[in-house]
Amino acid sequence: MMREILINLPIESHEVPNLRELVGWDGRHSDYPTLFERCNFWAGLRVEKNNELIAFGYVAGMGLQHGYMEDIIVHPQYQKKGIGQSLVKKLLQESERVGLEIVTLTYDSKHASFYNESGFKPCSGGLWRKKD
Hints:
This protein is of the alpha+beta class and 132 residues long. The chain is 26% helix and 22% strand. The chain has a single domain (6-117), classed as Gcn5-related N-acetyltransferase (GNAT) (Aminopeptidase, 3-Layer(aba) Sandwich), CATH 3.40.630.30. Strands 1-2-3-4-5 form a five-stranded mixed beta sheet.
């Protein structure tokens, strides 16, 4: 059984990197706990049986009009059950509660329908990346 998705759920520094690695991403262990200090807010979900973190996402920005949503992650064993959309919905509700008027994100095109169903509209933009 799962618990409720919570805003600013207490999370240990190793938990998000571990979850990132479970979905095939770089763990980025050095980002934590700094991320929790710098982002506007985050949301997470744990399973009741062992208190394992199975979903995570956050919104960063200046806390003014605009925020950026990032790292929507759901443990592979719990994907395709509506948890990701519930996580995004919770983050958007919190965005609205704190006064954000615009939330943007970037995503792989294979996830376009997920984000469209979650209320995001495709738009143009740009991406800069540091050269290796």
